[in-house]
């Protein structure tokens, strides 16, 4: 009877698996990132980093303060979604549990993406704290409120950057270089993403920026704040996010394929 029920309600079984995977991710995240640790270390560090980038962007021209503020606040999304998110697949390497994912019914990237949902929420909380705290320190509190009103767009940016973070983590697993590659990716976004200075100053770096998360979405955010055209930038951000997600899918499939054909298990 249970097999008939599964055939009749396949979506319910799939949704149950999704829900349980998200719940497992939440429990792992809560254990690794207790709120006291966030309040004492993680959030203050993010606020100080955001404040530093705002001051850096406005150091040569005070009129760029608002520009740098928006970019630095949006950049704070990447701390959980690109740097910290690497611990999601890396935990299976540390615990030696990736073989269970290989034998499961959900693709590896799907499992990691669902377990990473708490990092998206963490990114929004961190960005809100940075916006309000740094906005108060720099006199940009009104702009901070306007920026936070674009929460749906910011959630999309969190999702696209998380896709890139998981893709980067797939390349880092063999050498346990998730923190190194995650930080490299974040600073590449700073350099090529038009975060604290306008893009277009260095052509080759600007070309790289077109393929990075945050870059196009940040242009959409700036356009929304200024009342300009934003849809094309947002669509470009979605396209970049999908491309990074596909790279992540291929990366984890490659690890699984190598382990099955050659016995080379990067998660071992």
UniProtKB/TrEMBL annotation:
Domain ABC-2 type transporter transmembrane residue range list: 43-223
Transmembrane regions listed in the UniProt entry: 37-59, 65-88, 109-135, 147-172, 179-197, 230-252
Keyword Iron-sulfur: no
Designated name of the protein: ABC-2 type transporter transmembrane domain-containing protein
InterPro entries: ABC2_TM (IPR013525)
Gene Ontology cellular-component terms listed: membrane
Provenance organism: Phytohabitans suffuscus
Location(s) in or outside the cell: Membrane
Gene Ontology terms, MF aspect: ABC-type transporter activity
Domain of life: Bacteria
Topology of this chain in the membrane: Multi-pass membrane protein
Keywords: Membrane, Transmembrane, Transmembrane helix
